[in-house]
Amino acid sequence: MNTDDLITSLSSGVTPVSRSAVGWRLAAGVIVGAAASTLLIIATLGFRPDLWLAMHGSTLWMKWGYTISLAVAAIYATARLARPEPGGLRRLWLIAVPVLGLAAIGVNELINTPRADWLAMWLGQTWDKCPWLVLILAMPIFIGLLWSFRRLAPTRLRAAGAVAGSGAAERTRTKFRWVSSPAMRTIKMHLPQFGGFGLGLRKPHYAAFLDGQVGVDFVEVISENFMVDGGQPRRILRQVREHYPVALHGVSMSVGSADGVDDAYLARLRTLVDEVEPLFVSDHLCWTRIEGFNSHDLLPLPYDEDTLNIVVANVCRAQDALGRAMLIENPSSYVAFGHSEMTEWEFLDALCQRSGCGLLLDVNNVYVSGRNHGFDALAYLDGVPASRVRQVHLAGHSQGEDLLIDTHDRPVCASVWELYAHVLPRLGPIATMIERDDDIPLLEELLDELDVARGIAGAALRKAA
Amino acid sequence: MTLLALQRDFRDWLHVGEDRQAACFPPSARPGLAVYQNNFRGQIAACLGESFPVTRSWLGGEAFHKAIVVHAERTPPSSWTLDAYPCDFPHTLGRLYPDDREVAELAWLELALAEAFVAADAVPISADALACIDWEHAVLELAPSLQIQPISTNAPAIWSALAGETSPPAAEQLTEPAALLIWRQGERSRFRTTDRAEADALSLIRSGSSFGALCTGLAEASDGDLATAAAASWLAQWITDELIIGTKGETTCTA
Q1: What number is the ipTM of this complex?
Q2: Which residue of A has its CA nearest to B31?
Q3: Which residue ranges make up each domain of chain B?
Q4: Can you name the CATH fold of A191-464?
């Protein structure tokens, strides 16, 4: 048999292969594998509770666009490698475009971040779980692609296997966005460090702050007072913002509500955030609202796993809606719940780790709650996650019939000053402000009190150094 | 106990505040529960008291406090902002004082002035733009702060006297149907009383009718010259009051 006869005998009886056979085979492998992977995700992780809100923000779609672009490129490469002669793979350099783009954003964020936060920023909150979950959940798609290859004719086996694995992983990461908010969230979760001293902006002092001559490094406003459509309040805030950094401090977000946070509230707050570009956005570890009833008070929470899951979901949802990390403040409380499973500072630590939020540490609230519930305020301050604290509140309180009441109507007491001095070495230079909401004195009096804070901070930090 | 169940019990304690609701919590929580309930009730009373100082002065402190209690029982706060809580209070006063309609109208006037104060910003139409308006076809845009309310008593006169700390007139029913216009000019909330014809004209304009259509409607309903004179007079007043912030439609000026 000569060569021509051999070719003739080999090719006789071979049914023609459709030009789209490779595509159909790969599509079948990917679709069946993706379906299995999706079912696995639903069965094990479930959908993220804030999916609907997240879909209205840019973050989710940015992450989705990044991973889908890698998945498309990897599947394209798989299709090319499925043939005996893969041809040129030169277009594969396009894979580098989203990778380099993300790297550029990451480097820019790192440049603007204190070195101490680099590791946390790089790893995110889910670094120890995410890679393994992606690996496991990508398996069905990987198996589907390998099944496709068995009927095809790859000749560069290592390259074909590598791109099949890459395609499977990226397809899985694309779906993974719907169930959690992994590593890329950290890019937006950066919390700036600011070491100044400030006061709350209150009506009797508006005129002085509008002149920009008050000796403070920042001002804090109650967000809700300025979440109006227009008029004098918004004009005053715009003018004050021209002179000072502004921190937005809210009282109505209700991150502890079992029925979630209010979308209309978040949308209004986002409008204000976009206009003010605040130093910080904060609210309290409490609940104010449930099922259409609003108490307009900072109500206490039990510190257990059920509550933690709810607060984490609500804070994540708020942060996604606001497009930035928040600070959560420890409240003063008058009722403690017997079924709490952790201390307040342990709860706050877990909340920071799982949501990426920071803390606003109210030293007066630590003192008031400590006295009311019989815990050691020093143990609280030693246990609070210092690296997540970005702002400190100082205020006065009153003695009620049975309990200390957080009234914000008098100067900071000596015990609270001592606690402030105690915690400062752990915090380092930190944004500190005096809160006064009732019986508001002359501005000069508050500025004198702020000078006391400056003095204590200077001495405590020098001593620590 | 789930968090939702705990929060429902807590809500019931704040809203109803009887021993049956307190029994959901251990006895050791009673002092703290009392603090929260006191805060809740104090906030509501302070909010309504600060929102309706003139109405309070007219009614007297005791009667006003009774009205607060009735309102709080029927209408617990629901909005994220306490500023929204006063919205239904004039309605409660209307039900409590059906024969003294000036009470609810006073409260409504106070509420509307506060709402106008923080209404969306708008720039009144400029003199140049006015000169270019094709009045036949122009649809006027009114200030977003404008509120129009029919009134039947001399509540505005009572408000002016009490706000100026002078002796208020006795309450009276108006002999002719009237309306109250409230809006913000610059950063000041303003109001004036007018007849129903001007109020209806403003409502028509706000619903999207052109100024020409308003004039035609007036002419058909009454004497043509008088109608035109009335429309011109209103228009001049609206411009003076800075109620017009723009127009839709073509202008007579070329660029």
Answers
A1: 0.92
A2: A402
A3: 1-99, 119-255
A4: TIM Barrel (3.20.20)
